[in-house]
């Protein structure tokens, strides 16, 4: 048995696959099923060990922020690079969320966030307040909020 994230696109699945695999380290397209005219129908991806399937299924099934892909990063430089690539043509959202140019929602968050959101209530409140004021997350600012609580 396996579990795969499955995303329906109108017609841009192959372009999305190129963006995702070039943005998320250790990622690749593992298989493409093409239609008779040569366009991609189903694409299988490995996004750093996470299986994702993209399908060009036609209009009528828009993406929603009710489901998102989360990328957990170790550094601000990595966060910035991924954020910038995914928001190009898309839109930033609150608290580390964004929507890419294909309408897929993403969360780009640092590995340190669970530690910063734990502990004494005043630290949790301080970090939560800082987090809610951000679009792209700023790790140093979150750490300052944690330490200054």
Brief summary:
The protein has 149 residues and is an alpha/beta fold. It has five helices and eight strands; from the N terminus they run βαββββαβββααα.
Gyration radius from CA atoms, angstroms:
17 Å
Determine the fraction of residues in helical runs and give it as a percent range.
25-40%
**Major sheet: order of its strands?**
1-4-3-2
Q: Give the C-level CATH assignment of the largest domain.
A: Alpha Beta
Our count of domains comes out at 2
**DSSP strand content:** 25-35%
Find the CATH topology of the largest domain.
2,3-Dihydroxybiphenyl 1,2-Dioxygenase, domain 1
Shape: elongated
Major sheet, described briefly?
4 strands, mixed
- Uncertain runs are none
User: What's the CATH superfamily of the largest domain, by name?
Assistant: 2,3-Dihydroxybiphenyl 1,2-Dioxygenase, domain 1
Please write the string of helix (H) and strand (E) elements: EHEEEEHEEEHHH
If helices are DSSP runs of H or I spanning 4 or more residues, what is the number of helices? 5
Structural class: alpha/beta
User: What average pLDDT do the residues reach?
Assistant: 96
